[in-house]
Design goal:
Belongs to the 4-hydroxybenzoyl-CoA thioesterase family. With about 140 residues, the chain is of the alpha+beta class. It has helices spanning about 35-50, 135-140; strands at about 15-20, 60-75, 80-90, 95-105, 115-125. The protein has one domain (about 10-140): Hotdog Thioesterase (Thiol Ester Dehydrase, Chain A), CATH 3.10.129.10. It is globular.
Length: about 140
């Protein structure tokens, strides 16, 4: 029996962000380095929040900080592939949200990798946990399971 999660498919995600791989993303083995997958995920989350008008990177008084993350790899992504990051919220708490993400290579149906990232929302000035602002909650509710 394997503890490896099932390989997600595109239809299980509610929002997608498409981005190219970059020449510098790959390692000496010829595929995108594992740490870059996290960068794709964080970029997709940030782009979604900015597009929704819920995040001003330099000035929002409440920001999300990553407190937990993991990634399972199923297949390599290589340069010059396009990556579609599928995103959904599996848990929307008072001050935290668990983002479920999958990275799809080009137009493939099954994910090359699956990740989760937990954000805790904090007051930028005091760095203390606060309730998720209503505007953010509304945007996240649109992609909640």
């Amino acid at each position: 029996m394997s503890n490896k999660p099932e390989r997600p498919c595109r239809e299980t995600f509610r929002h997608f962000t498409r981005m190219p791989t970059r020449w510098g993303d790959h390692d000496s083995y010829g595929h995108v380095n594992n740490v870059v997958y996290y960068s794709y995920c964080e970029s997709a989350i940030t782009a979604f929040l900015v597009e929704q008008g819920t995040l001003e990177i330099a000035s929002s008084p409440v920001i999300g900080l990553i407190v937990n993350s993991s990634c399972t790899y199923f297949a390599p992504i290589c340069f010059p592939d396009q990556v579609s990051v599928g995103m959904r919220i599996s848990h929307l708490g008072n001050s935290s949200a668990r983002y479920e993400l999958a990275l799809f290579r080009n137009d493939e149906h099954e994910a090359a990798a699956a990740a989760h990232i937990v954000y805790v929302y904090v007051d930028r000035a005091s760095n203390t946990s606060v309730p998720i602002p209503q505007t953010v909650r509304t945007a996240l509710a649109r992609i909640t399971d």
